[in-house]
Structure formats: structure tokens, C-alpha cells
């Protein structure tokens, strides 16, 4: 098992900011990317956190991500629109897409805006939360443009689909918005990257190897294996959700789809749907009834030692804890991060930033 080090959020975020700047990003872009990656680690989702940095840097060198690229509208029908990310960082293109969707929802009550031709967008919850902060309901669907075969279809024994996540954010008066973000596979691909980096096994019933046999070795996924669809014995439910996300995010945007011909470049094509709650009913009433529902659910009798949580509460608590104790990063991830710092001439020794007893 790999050794673990702990980091206060601000110093490690500044280090990532400096790396982004050195690899070609303007200041606002570097700040956005660094903030979003650190936020993922803080909320207990290292699958979309700092371990992604070496992958992003390789994508830059291969022109799959173009630092400083400006996304632009290519179709505009008022309540619906489509953006071309122009190979921008996914965080940049998706952030602009959500801003357009919120603006159009305010104008029309509901908006559906897609984006294609962009890099990895990170944690979907960030965009759903942006809608919730604007007192809207935000729904986000994301695929990989046919470039990621990671998940086996239900009853299948080989990888055919991406992990195709869904996120929904709901406005409330709580400090941390009501939000969920989930892959339609049993786990996100990045979680297996995190296990591999930490030298830990995968849980049972999550992976099969390239011969279709159950495995707990994360390496098997990256050697021709596959993640199982969400739902275990009821995995057809995860498969159906995955299929529909491919339609809504891949086919609808024209960004690509599972099984398309050729050799598609990774493309986190995404569709965002935003509803202005005020167009349906008074916002204070909506929020009050939401609180009533949460209270009713939390008042449920629970299993021994368990607690009913609202969507997003796990992440809120995890962030509060890690701001006290520090973000855990394994030695393998830190080694690769340092390699990128050295490659781009950033004069930071990452381990010097670690918290010490």
C-alpha cells in the first residue's frame, strides 16, 4: 500500500495553479481548474481530483486539451443551444455552458444547452451546484464521445460504454446545496485509478477482467477489463441509465457515441438542462416544502449505527473534515505530480507542502 501524505487545501491549490499557468493557461482558467480539482478531493472524490493532473498534462501535450481555448456558440435557438468547446479544458467549456443554460432558463423558464469538443470536465456536481446557487434545478448528463470503453453492458462480458454520469442540483437555503452526482456504472473509472495509485484492491462485484471473470485487481480494468453497470444483480437499471445518457449527451450534441466508427478523440460531450423554479411556483414555498421532506426522511427509523442523509450531505461533512485534517494524497500520485512540475519548470517541491505532525 502506498504511503499517504496530507495537504492543506490552499498551498496545494496554489501549486496546481502554478502548474496550469506554466503549461499555458491564463490566470482565470488556471484558478478554475485548480479550484475544481481540489474541491473534488475535499469532498471525498479523489477520482476527479489531483490525480487527474498528469492525465491533463499529457492531454495538453497531445493537443486534446488546448489551454486558453475559447468555447463558442455554434447553434442558438433561445431555450436550446450548442457550444463548441474548441478543445478547451472541460472545466472551462462546461462552466460556460452552464452559465448559458442558467441565462436562458431565466429568459424562458427552461433551457437545454449542449457542449462538445472539450476535455474532461471533472466532477459534474460543480455544474449542478451552479444552477442550484442561482435558484434553479440543474440536470447534467455527460458521456465520452465514444472514446472510452470502460463499462460492460448488462449481461455483457467486455467493455463497451463510458461511465456516463448524471448530476442534479436543487436550490435550498442550506449552506451546502442539495446535489447528487453519480456514474451509471457501479463506480466511476477514476475511483479505480485512485485505488491503483494507493495500492488497494477494488471491492467485490465491481470489475471483470478481459476474460469476463470477476476480479478485485484495479489493474485489470486498464488491461482490457470492464466496470460493471450500476445495480449488481439489477444491473440492467444502470445499463438503461447509461444508454440514455449516451443518447442525451453523446448523440444529441453530435459529440460521439459508443461503437462509432473510426478512432474518436476523448470528448466529454455534455447536455445541461436548467429549470427556473420560480416559473413553476413561489421559490420560498418550494424551499420550505423541500425542508419538510428532508426532515421527514431524516426522522425515519434507521438501521443500527446508521443515519439518513440528504443528497450532498456526505460531501459537505467530508469537506468539513478534510479542511481540518488535510487532503490525503498517495505517494504515487505525488510522484507523478512532481514529474509534471519538473517538466514545466515549476520550482515547487510538492512534498515540502505536506502537513507534518
Short description:
This protein is an alpha+beta fold.
How are the elements arranged and paired?
Blueprint (H helix, E strand, L loop, with lengths): L3 E4 L1 H14 L4 H16 L10 H9 L10 E5 L3 E9 L1 H19 L1 E9 L6 H9 L2 E7 L23 E5 L7 E5 L6 H10 L8 E2 L5 E2 L10 E2 L8 H16 L18 E7 L6 H16 L14 H13 L1 E4 H13 L14
Parallel strand pairs: 3-4
Antiparallel strand pairs: 1-12, 2-3, 4-11, 5-6, 5-11, 6-7, 8-9, 8-10
Distance between the termini: 21 Å
Radius of gyration: 20 Å
How much of the polypeptide forms β-strand, as a percent range?
15-25%
Give the count of helical stretches.
10
Q: Which bin fits the share of residues in helices?
A: 25-40%
Query: What do the pLDDT scores average to?
Result: 96
Strand count, sense and closure of the main sheet? Answer: 7 strands, mixed
What string, H for helix and E for strand, traces the elements in order? EHHHEEHEHEEEHEEEHEHHEH
**Spatial strand order of the main sheet:** 2-3-4-11-5-6-7
Task: Characterise this structure.
The chain has 10 helices and 12 strands. The strands form 3 sheets. A 7-stranded mixed beta sheet has the order 2-3-4-11-5-6-7, with helices on both faces. The mean pLDDT is 96. 38% of the residues lie in helices and 17% in strands. With 357 residues, the chain is α+β, with helices and mostly antiparallel strands.
Task: Please name the defining characteristics of this protein.
globular, 357 residues, 17% strand, 10 helices
